[in-house]
Specification:
alpha/beta, two-stranded parallel sheet, 11 strands, elongated, nine-stranded mixed β-sheet, 271 residues
């Protein structure tokens, strides 16, 4: 039973058109990221590509359809070189500190484990001290992979002599050889969680000292993409990564915080 006064009718008529324009402006802003095209070559190490890659592609297809992504699956050393050459725009680097000429930050930490056959002396153990590694015949990837470099530095620091029987880059081959019970390897849990769950392999976390492997997010300095698109891609990647880690699919400790990322992006100069 209420009606606008004469002044109220005037105000409604006067504001009607500007409010419509404002509504259109908000709609345009929301759809801006879907209309502007951007391209990205993203580098992922093989194991991370299997875990993260499909989710990122599906999410981009849904939320940023004009963001053209090409996945480059290589080891971290090659991806680091690609960033420096400008052939890779964004990369996830494992256990390898990015070059200072790149934009980078620590993304997460994941513990390293000594892995072996279920009938080995690792069965039933939760941890193994680093000094004990000299008692195990190891199969490791070749340098400059992050794990052998880290082990070598710690061995020098603690006066420990590592017994490296073979250098094999293939994760599949390494895991298959471990089942023979003669050799052991050092890996993050992501690499062997399925085998651990099935009982095909066992693992003990390396301690004294703890050996968290750092995973970095790195971008090349000359990549040019609209800031709004980059920000959305960055947050989208964070959301998917956080979901994977919270679900336990990737056993790791996320070092990012969404609120901190949003503040960082707000302060980042226009790309």
């Amino acid at each position: 039973g209420m009606r606008l006064t004469e002044e109220g009718e005037y105000l409604r008529d006067a504001l009607g058109h500007p409010m419509q324009q404002l509504d259109v402006a908000f709609q345009n802003v929301r759809s801006f990221s879907k209309r502007v095209e951007a391209t990205c070559v993203m580098g992922l190490p093989p194991l991370i590509a299997e875990t993260v890659g499909p989710r990122i592609v599906r999410r981009l297809e849904k939320d940023l359809p004009n963001f053209k992504l090409r996945l480059n699956v290589e080891d971290s050393a090659r991806l680091n070189s690609g960033l420096l050459r400008g052939t890779v725009d964004v990369a996830i680097l494992v256990g390898l500190a990015p070059d200072d000429r790149l934009h980078h930050g620590e993304m997460l930490h994941e513990d390293l484990f000594l892995v072996g056959a279920p009938d080995s002396d690792l069965a039933g153990r939760d941890t193994v001290a680093f000094r004990e590694l000299e008692n195990y015949s190891l199969i490791l990837p070749a340098k400059p992979a992050g794990i052998p470099v880290t082990l070598e530095k710690l061995a020098s620091r603690f006066g420990t002599r590592l017994n490296v029987a073979f250098e094999i880059d293939s994760l599949t081959v390494r895991k298959d050889l471990l089942k023979d019970g003669k050799h052991f390897s050092v890996m993050p849990m992501l690499a062997v969680k399925d085998e651990i769950a099935s009982g095909a392999l066992v693992a003990a976390r390396i301690t004294e000292p703890d050996m968290p492997q750092t995973v970095y997010y790195s971008t090349q300095t000359h990549w040019r993409v609209p800031r709004s698109i980059y920000n959305q891609f960055y947050l989208l990647f964070y959301d998917e990564l956080a979901t994977i880690i919270e679900s336990g699919e990737w056993p790791a400790t996320l070092l990012w915080d969404r609120q901190a990322i949003q503040l960082q992006l707000a302060e980042t100069p226009t790309r």
